[in-house]
Amino acid sequence: MLLSNTTKSDDSGVYIGIDVLFGRKIYWDAKQSPRHHILIVGPTGSGKTIALTAIATRLAKLNNATLAVFDVKGEYPSLMKFFTNKNAFVWDVTQMPIPICSCDEHQEDVIYNIRLFINTLNLLYKLPTYMRDQVHEQLVRLCRYCHESTLDNTLRGYLVEEPEAIHTALNIFSTGSESSVVTHLLRQKNTVIDLGRLFLLDPKATAVATLYILKRMLKTLGGLNTGSIAKVVLLDELWYVAQSAIEDLVNMLIRYGRGYGISLAMATQSIDDLNPYTDTIVESCGAVIALSSPSRSYWLRLAKHLNLGKRGIENAVKFVEQGIAVAKLYPHEKPLYVYIDPLD
Question: What Gene3D superfamilies does the database record attribute to this sequence (predicted)?
Answer without folding.
Answer: P-loop containing nucleotide triphosphate hydrolases
